[in-house]
Amino acid sequence: RNSFETKAVKQNIQSVACLQPKVQASFKVAVLGAAGGIGQPLSLLVKMSPLVSDLHLYDIANVKGVAADLSHCNTPSEVLAFTGPEQLADALKGVDVVVIPAGVPRKPGMTRDDLFNINAGIVKTLVEAVADNCPDAFIHIISNPVNSTVPIAAEVLKQRGVYNPKKLFGVTTLDVVRANTFVAQKKNLKLIDVDVPVIGGHAGITILPLLSRTKPSVSFSNEEIEELTVRIQNAGTEVVEAKAGAGSATLSMAYAAARFVESSLRALDGDSDVYECSFVQSELTEVPFFASRIKLGKKGIEAFVNSDMQGLTDYESKGLEALKSELKASIEKGIAFANKQA
Ligand code: NAD
Ligand code: LMR
């Protein structure tokens, strides 16, 4: 049995299911974009964490009502609302984990890169405030296109002299959540046991599930590998089309982001067995930012799980080579944007 993701899932389920806190709540979390489709359910799930003492909700609109509503839940954290640029600094002071789902979502027919023109500027502005007010926090970037917004965040932090590559994360947990769900369904496995690492990036072919690394060990036909890989790569679009203009994944994303927050808090709390996939600065390949499984600790990334990358199948190796040029171009686009604006 794997000790990576299964443990994380079980612990998340336990901590969310039993609302009686068994651990000391002591961490401060800020959600930027907290009144949005992801922000609201994500804030609810974070409010249920026994590890959180303070939950700061920031948005440019409608956040007071969300905070008033959430603050009535009898879980440990105190919920505070912050609205507008003038309150952003206060939202961030003393925060341990900052989660950023601010920005516009896709509509049918759009790619994630089509969101760049609006979301790049939003992420840049918010990360500037993070750099000035809580430079030591774990930073979780959800806003798309993740393949570009994470490099933008890195450049902004460098410009302010506070970049710590061990603490900047592109949230790709939803790709893992989807891979686990689809594989469990296809192979009739118990969901809680299934763990599929997903590497690369977070758009189209840059999303590369390593089905050969599935735990528990399971064999797939070539047709199953092709079908599952394509479904995982297109799962975001599947939701965008089903929502027919009303946005993209919000509930499954909130679930996935809450899991990544909980894993980060457990790592900060001293748990020495926390593993997640995330899009981070990386030397695993020649692409400077790359999603892979990492070990989290008190200081952020403690180690890269290099073994996932060894002995890839031909299908996975071809997928890896095919994604590199698109991923590099998206990264360079983000870096150029951040430096042009500087
Ligand atoms: P949404 O439109 O429902 O919510 C976005 C929220 O951001 C709104 O409340 C809006 O007021 C707020 N906002 C906009 N500009 C802001 C600013 N400057 N400061 C603070 N808040 C601001 O959108 P959503 O469905 O919640 O999606 C948000 C983003 O997450 C999109 O870019 C989407 O593509 C992305 N997303 C990423 C993943 C992933 O796996 N990483 C999954 C799903 C969605
Ligand atoms: C997802 O994977 O669901 C998100 O990146 C949102 C999108 O636009 O697909």
TrEMBL record:
Its EC number is 1.1.1.37. It catalyses: (S)-malate + NAD(+) = oxaloacetate + NADH + H(+). One of its GO terms (biological process) is tricarboxylic acid cycle. Residues 28-170 form the Lactate/malate dehydrogenase N-terminal domain. Keywords: NAD, Oxidoreductase, Tricarboxylic acid cycle. GO terms for cellular component: cytoplasm; mitochondrion. One of its GO terms (molecular function) is L-malate dehydrogenase (NAD+) activity. Residues 172-337 form the Lactate/malate dehydrogenase C-terminal domain. It comes from the Eukaryota. The keyword Ribosomal protein does not apply. Homodimer. Belongs to the LDH/MDH superfamily. MDH type 1 family. This is malate dehydrogenase. The gene is LOC110778437. The chain holds residues 70 to 411 of 414 of the full protein.
